[in-house]
Fold:
Amino acid sequence: MIKGIDKKRVRKLILMALKEDIGPGDITSKAIFGKSDISRAVIKSKDNGVLCGIEMVLYVYSLIDRRVSVSAIPHDGDKIREGTIVCEMTGPTISLLSGERTVLNFIQRMSGIATRTSNIVSILGVPRIKILDTRKTLPGFRYLDKYSVKTGGGSNHRMGLYDMMLIKDNHIKAAGGVGASIERVRKKHGDKYKIEVEAKTLDQVLEAVDSGVDIIMLDNMDMETMSKATGIISKRALIEVSGNVDEERIKELSVLEIDYISIGALTHSVRAFDFSMEFL
Structure:
């Protein structure tokens, strides 16, 4: 099982994907092949990057037909190149063909996320600053998307609305200010949760610091404003930078005294990694 992934969640997701693709049956494969036909196939990389989700091939075929044997060659997190064979499969021809698109859909998305994360971590080149994902994930895929970010060398932000206190701009507007939002949170939960506040202005940064929050997110600020904000915070809270961060901008952020950079594009704008299944 992929470490840190809830097996029940993954199974439910796979079953949904298979139902969507196969429906009542693969009519083309069943018309051409019989139940006794056996084939061998490989999945081959057509790209360069970081492999992620290879165990999904095994999970998918275990739900289609347990007679399919899957042997993974490289492992998640390994660098692969165009032409690399990432796994071999033997089993009923109909079953291999019926699962082809589903397994490729999973590993191309997961490897795409891991590869982009790895590239950004490499461009940043500052281990003390952690690259974080966000909640901008494909619905139903959040656990796999976040696993893929970690495989690429990034770190996970909160999983959902239930496991971390993050006061965002709309909370602040509706509550009447940063201080009012923090006061309500502490009245309700005391010190049960660490508190992060999203700040768009230096005034909000100052208010968050004075309120003693744990993390301050500098959202969509220019370099000059962020430099001033880090001076105001002066290590009294951890600092996260967010907002339109990509490969072109990431390097300039490395000079800031910050702890985290969160990038929604890691998961919401995925360039799928290219794989193909080839019968031998």
